[in-house]
TrEMBL record:
The keyword Transferase applies. It catalyses: 4-CDP-2-C-methyl-D-erythritol + ATP = 4-CDP-2-C-methyl-D-erythritol 2-phosphate + ADP + H(+). GO terms for molecular function: 4-(cytidine 5'-diphospho)-2-C-methyl-D-erythritol kinase activity; ATP binding. ATP binds at residues 97-107. Residues 202-273 form the GHMP kinase C-terminal domain. Catalyzes the phosphorylation of the position 2 hydroxy group of 4-diphosphocytidyl-2C-methyl-D-erythritol. This is 4-diphosphocytidyl-2-C-methyl-D-erythritol kinase. Residues 68-145 form the GHMP kinase N-terminal domain. InterPro entries: GHMP_kinase_C_dom, GHMP_kinase_C_sf, GHMP_kinase_N_dom, IspE, Ribosomal_Su5_D2-typ_SF, Ribsml_uS5_D2-typ_fold_subgr. Keywords: ATP-binding, Isoprene biosynthesis, Kinase, Nucleotide-binding, Transferase. The active site is at 11, 139. Its EC number is 2.7.1.148.
Length: 286
């Protein structure tokens, strides 16, 4: 038996535009995604015999059957490479909050897919990994690359970008989640969504210009959800009362982030006191 310890990191969206809808219902996107150092842990045990995948986790609300993204990756990978599946056990220690817009599940899937491919001698190319990944989850291609990127299409078109922003991040996750499917459904409630200027955001990231980045961040999913989600509306209003920080929603929510440059410990302490029912993480770009 061989044992491997892997980390599976989260992401934030710095700007998210929805630019169209395909006939199959998938939304076309234009956004930036940046890896951060908030991580889940995967302990993978591989036996030198054919078998099945067994999943264990520290969270009761995470399924461990065939609906788990790790199992979907496992099945699809071995179908693609036409090899007998190896007997494996994965213990998934979840730290990244669920239904937060931080990409935890997609990251788990992508990191496991990269692991399987490397274990079998890089049998699949990067392009083949992206194709396999996007058939399971739209954010998986980004996590296969796992570098600051402009992400377009349904998530499969990746353009690596330069991130020189010298900041820390605070992530705050309220005691409720948002369904990604529900978030996209709410797009019908807005006719002319406000658009992020992705080009300017990319320029700001490259030039370490935080004011330029913050000026042009919009998130169409947040805009849509704030038309109907009472929990999110109430939480967003509470965040606006924190005058020293600007908060932005990541992905489909419900987590928000703010950039930190100075007095970090003091600001984090105040947030923990003020939002004592929330999960709060101090993070950095990965």
């Amino acid at each position: 038996m061989k044992i491997f310890n892997l980390q599976s990191n989260a992401k934030i969206n710095i700007g998210l535009n929805i630019v169209g809808v395909l006939e199959n219902g998938y939304h076309l996107l234009d956004m930036t995604m940046i890896p951060i150092d908030l991580c889940d842990n995967l302990i993978i045990k591989v036996e030198d015999k054919s078998g099945d995948l067994k999943i264990k986790t520290n969270k009761k609300d995470i399924p461990v059957d065939s609906s788990n993204i790790l199992y979907k990756i496992y099945i699809k990978f071995y179908e693609k490479v036409k090899l007998a599946p190896l007997s494996m056990e994965v213990f998934l220690e979840k730290i990244i909050p669920h239904q937060a817009g931080l990409g935890g599940g997609s990251s788990n899937g992508a990191i496991f897919l990269n692991f399987l491919n490397k274990f079998h001698g890089n049998i699949l190319s990067f392009g083949e990994l992206v194709e396999l990944g996007k058939s399971i989850g739209a954010d998986i291609p980004f996590f296969i690359l796992n570098k600051p990127s402009r992400v377009q299409g349904i998530g499969e078109k990746l353009q690596e970008i330069e991130n020189n922003l010298k900041v820390s991040l605070v992530i705050i996750k309220p005691p409720f989640g948002v369904s990604t499917v529900e978030a996209y459904k709410q797009m019908k409630n807005i006719d002319n969504p406000r658009k992020s200027n992705i080009d300017n955001i990319i320029q700001g990231l490259k030039e370490n210009d935080l004011s330029l980045v913050e000026e042009y961040i919009e998130n169409n999913l947040e805009e849509a959800l704030l038309k109907s989600d009472k929990n999110l509306i109430e939480f967003r209003n509470k965040l606006k009362e924190v005058e020293e920080l600007k908060f932005f929603m990541s992905g489909s929510g419900s987590a928000f982030y703010a950039f930190l440059i100075e007095d970090i410990d003091e600001k984090i302490s105040k947030l923990r006191h003020r939002f004592n029912d929330c999960e709060i993480f101090l993070c950095n770009f990965k």
